[in-house]
Amino acid sequence: MKWDTVIGLEVHVQLATKTKIFSGASTAFGAEPNTQACAIDLAMPGTLPVLNKQAVHYAVMFGLAIDAEIGKESAFERKNYFYPDLPKGYQTTQLEKPIVGRGNVEIQLADGSTKNIRIHHAHLEEDAGKSLHEGDFRHGVSGIDLNRAGTPLIEIVSEPDISSAEEAIAFAKKLHSVVTSIGICDGEMSQGSMRFDVNVSVKPSGSDTLGTRTETKNLNSFKFMEECIVKEVERQIDLIEDGGTVIQETRLYNGDTKVARSMRSKEEANDYRYFPCPDLLPVIVTDETIEELRRNLPELPDARQARFVEEYGLSDYDASVLGNDAGMATYFEIAAKTSGSAKLAANWTMGELAARLNNEDISIANSPVSADQLGGLVTRIVDNSISGKMAKEVFEGIWAGEGSADEIIEARGLKQVSDSGALEQMVTDVLAANQEMVDDYINTDEAKRKKKLGGFMGQIMKASKGQANPQQVNQILAKKLNELL
Amino acid sequence: MSIERHEIEKLAMLSRIAISDSTIVEVSQRLGSVLDLVDQLQGVNTEGVQAMSHPMQAIQRLREDEVSELNQREALQKIAPDTEEGLFLVPKVIE
Amino acid sequence: MHNRTIAELINGLQSKEFSSVELTQHFLDRIGDLNPNYNAIITVTAEQALKAAAAADERLAAGNAPAMCGIPILHKDIFCTNGVRTSCGSKMLDNFIPPYNATVVENFEQAGAVVLGKTNMDEFAMGSSNETSFYGSVQNPWDTDCVPGGSSGGSAAAVAARLAPGATATDTGGSIRQPAALCGITGLKPTYGRVSRWGMIAFASSLDQGGPMARTAEDCAIMLSCMASFDDKDSTCIDREVPDYCAALGQDVNGLRIGVPSEYFSKGLNEGTEQAVRTALAKLEEQGAELVEISLPNTGLSVPAYYVIAPAEASANLSRFDGVKYGYRCEDPKDLQDLYSRSRAEGFGEEVQRRILIGTYCLSAGYYEAYYGKAQQVRQLIQRDFEKAFETVDVIMGPTCPSPAFKFGSKGDDPVAMYLEDIYTIATNLAGLPGMSVPCGMVDNKPVGLQIIGNYFDEARILNVAHQYQQITEWHDQAPEGVAS
User: Fold this and answer.
1) How much is the average pLDDT of A430-449?
2) Which pLDDT does position A268 carry in this prediction?
């Protein structure tokens, strides 16, 4: 039996506004509990919401970035349920008239093909607070931190156009790229800036009837989402093939333990009783505002990717890697402009730098080596001040905070010797000090001589503490040895 | 109009108000009486009539995105029933 | 002193006939002596009052003080007062001390008014008799076996008993006008959006409005001038200039077109009440006003529509009372659900619980369209009735209540009997129009109220009509027995 997978994603994106969606409290990450929760966020009696202009603009910008209909008149509803991290006992959200309507997101797959994923809509809503279950407080209780309560979110809802885990990840990454590129979200997955709910169902291949879907909530890593989808598809297929039926339910996936489970069923019994929020009036976005936001919309990933190919001559692959990550793209461009060598800047950014950042779980925004500094390093490679090998050492130095490339080269005396006179002398000295090696070379068959060069190179590099310019040394060495033949 | 016991129980759950067994009949009766009142709406012809959510023809004002509320944890938590380490404490939340 | 109106007291203070401290002490003494008879006041703020009075005296001495400077008032215990318990008549908030002021409170504070205390009210403003308060019922000063009306029963009784020359109150379905009528005083509900709802504990957000209660229209005009303001913390507050309400009081009623709705003189109307109201209308006719018979055909639907919309909004507004952030918490909750269910069952009174259940029902899946959806449409019909009427008349007048003050417990166990008390006032709230009640007669030694309804933001006009009426009648000067001495 062949099976089709049908996946729909609901993506919660935290908007990078300075303040909450309905109050003037800060949204900065990492504050002490409840120090960024004002009376409105605490749902104190008599408090009322006032809508953050920037949140509206960011939502519209998203709509423009995915070529969507903009809801010029949108409204807020109350979604009613009880949970300690929901201080009002309802979430203010949008249902009937969301701020962004139908749109499209194109994804690129590993085999080079593209696919269009339709967006059903995107709406504004407020985030809830956090429940802490472990802590320095009493046993048997949970601690509630409402700092996050009221942070503006857009919830992006896709159509069930996604048919595999690979597509889901490509879609999720594309969204991540879009929202970070236009600057409406900081994209810090570990901080919960983007969270995914995955709706998964299976059906026999070719069948028109959709299967029952399950929803796994609150995934905040691409890797976990992929694992979760694969596991869930397998679980559902196994279940059906064993004669069982998939029940509609909400599930949680623990990325650390790799265990997925059903949430306590109370959620299913929830009737959210949506109704128009009487404290908020219809939200109007004018054509002027839309045009202004469109004019000032930062470069989108697809456009940037194309520009990287054209402007910097990058390969399609390099352009796609760098172009689709807003952080890397910015970094690369600075490094490229500083150094004048796009190719090298690209290699270093995607290679050495990315690997190191990945290893130590640091985001490019927090890179110990700044784009300027990397550019400075690349410049010295290009002008032959240091060899490629030396460059790695210098890179380490910059990473360790010793200063710029030039400062380190100076401090450690790493400047590559390229002065031909000095090099000539160096080669002569080494040849003179290694008569057996010279004799050996002369007496070796012509065909095998090339291999012997390494030995001389080694000596010369050792004598020069690695600072001799290898290409030049090679030339000089070859010439001198020839003279001796 | 009468409301079934299980409906009352569902409403009690949705609104998180414990209704004791001894009062459930009375609650049901009184609720039924109110629903008789509001059922008068059923017969009204409202075809083509827009629902009115706000009495005024006004639009939502937008607030500038500038921080205007600073840390008031102490003042706001002074009146909280149970806090520790700056957190509001509740019986353990089981997901 | 307590028999003087606010206008007269202002003169007294300005002419230094007495000081604010003397005035304040006088009323505090009266409250101490007489409040036990009526239970109109929940919290007396003697210390703060005398302090404010002293500060007011300094301001008065310096000259150029605002009108309300030094004038003692009471606030309905629904307005949050910084540092002073704000109970909303409920056990749920018996221990709630807000760390902020309602805008209405702030406005009076800025103007230098002196707050004597917080008045009793129906719990969470749900009621028409002030019998549902956690702090016990309020007695009507005209007949202490009778209710003062509600939900602003405390404010009404306090003003009638001359415990303060003026008090703030709120009106969602008639809660200012009806108690004003039953207590023989003057009360005004402004246009929706005229007075800020910030810090005014929400019952039904799209219907609630704060307004003044005093003994004359002129006093109400003075108080309203202070209460009305544009507040950017309330999204539903309309940004519109506040006129000088006192300036327009003197206009005569010659040529005024008064609409008299046939539906307001229906079967349930008490004979004596009808007579008093018709006599009042005739008096205005004598002064040159024109009585025009009009029809507000959907009046009969206003009570059913209200009892869907108000409870629905209230059910969400009261979800925040969960024992987590503030307010009442049950003892030893055994788990989260128990915390919620018991705190709310113990903290809320019967009527509040009933309305929450009704509201929850009307918003439930399967019932939303039939109840909430329908009620919002009927609301539109009711508004249209008024719109049409105001094409041919300037104000609409009729009785405020179907009958005078009734005995405690006389409405029996059927909640609906109580709900019908508001039959003439509710439509005004649904449409968002301003409305007033002024005393216009006595039936069985109990006051009767005349209702004046104006077009949107036409408070100046209805105050003018009320004032003109009070120039040619003396009902508003009458005091309950033993009170005026």
Assistant:
1) 85
2) 52
Q: Tell me what ipTM this predicted complex has.
A: 0.96
Q: Which amino acid is at C357?
A: L
Share of chain B residues as helix, strand and coil, in percent rounded to the nearest 5? 35, 10, 55
- Distance, in angstroms, between A402 CA and closest chain B CA? 37
Domains of chain B listed by start with CATH number = 5-42 (1.10.20)
Contact call for C324 and B53, based on CB within 8 A: no
The reply to whether C230 touches chain B by the CB within 8 Å rule is: no
CB atoms within 10 A of CB A454: 9
Whether the CB-CB separation of C480 and C160 falls below 8 Å is answered with yes
Mean pLDDT, chain A, rounded, equals 91
Contacts of A272 in chain B (CB under 8 A): none
Average pLDDT over residues C464-477: 97
Is A80's CB within 8 Å of C363's CB?
A: yes
Average pLDDT of the segment spanning C98-122: 98
Peptide bond into C151 cis (omega under 30): yes
pLDDT bin (cut points 50, 70, 90) of residue C421 is: confident
A neighbour chains, 3+ CB pairs within 8 Å: B, C
Q: Kindly provide the residue ranges of all beta strands, DSSP E only, lying in C308-444, ordered along the sequence.
A: 395-399, 435-443
Strands C209-214 and C186-189: antiparallel
3-state secondary structure labels for all residues of C86-109: CCCCCHHHCCCCCCCCCHHHHHHH
- The answer to whether C205 is a known catalytic residue is no
A264 confidence band (pLDDT: 50, 70, 90): low
What is the structure's pLDDT at A265?
A: 57
By the CB < 8 Å criterion, does A281 face chain B? Answer: yes
Best mutation target among B52, B62, B79, B84 (most C Cβ atoms within 10 Å) is B52
Q: What is the pLDDT of residue C468?
A: 98
Select from 1.10.357.20, 1.10.238.10, 3.40.50.300, 1.10.10.410 the CATH code of A420-484. Answer: 1.10.10.410
| C window 287-316, beta carbon within 8 A of A | 312-313, 315-316
Q: Does C206 participate in catalysis according to the annotation?
A: no
Rounded to an integer, the average pLDDT of A66-83 is 97
Phi first, then psi, for residue A215 (nearest 5°) are: -120, 125
Asked if C251 contacts C192 with a C-beta cutoff of 8 angstroms, the reply is: no
Kindly report the three-state secondary structure assignment for every residue of C201-246: CCCCCCCCEEEEEECCHHHHHHHHHHHCCCCCCCCCCCCCCCCCCC
Amino acid A372: pLDDT: 92
Average pLDDT, chain C: 96
Estimate the crossing angle of helix A301-312 against helix A165-181, to 10 degrees.
80
Output the CA angle A294-A298-A302, nearest 5 degrees. Answer: 100
Identity of the residue numbered A371: A
Helix, coil or strand: residue C248:
helix
Number of folded domains in chain C?
A: 1
Q: State how far the Cα of C485 lies from the Cα of C478, in Å rounded to an integer.
A: 12
Q: Considering the candidates C19, C20, C76, C189, report the single residue annotated as catalytic.
A: C76
pTM, to two decimals: 0.91
Pairing of strands C395-399, C257-261: parallel
C141, two tokens: 């000063």
Quick check: C280 and C243 in contact, CB under 8 A? no
A48 and chain B in contact, CB less than 8 A:
no
Least CA distance to C360: which residue of chain A? A273
Q: How far apart are CA A175 and CA C406, in angstroms?
A: 65
Give the pLDDT score at B95.
Answer: 65
The label of the residue with tokens 């600072």 reads A467
Given a contact cutoff of 8 angstroms between Cβ atoms, the answer to whether B73 and A30 are in contact is no
* pLDDT for position A269: 63
- CB of C385 within 8 Å of a chain A CB? The answer is no
**Range(s) of chain A covered by CATH 1.10.10.410:** 420-484
- Is C407 catalytic? The answer is no
